[in-house]
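Sample entry (70 residues):
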Amino acid sequence: LTKAGANVLGYGAFLTAVINFLLLAFVIFCMLKALSSMRRKLELEAEKATPPTPENIVLLREILAELKKK
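Predicted structure, serialized as tokens:
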């Protein structure tokens, strides 16, 4: 068409670049979201993994603190 002298608006390459950018941005966003979710789950599991101190240990620590006061 340009040889025939017609004015051509070449927007195909621009649209292709925009679509490629949007697809790549979406994929990266999904990967980061999944990574963040996995990290949050691991942190929650780590918090649950640490068992609470048994009551007898707490009582022994209180007794030790009282003995140190005397």
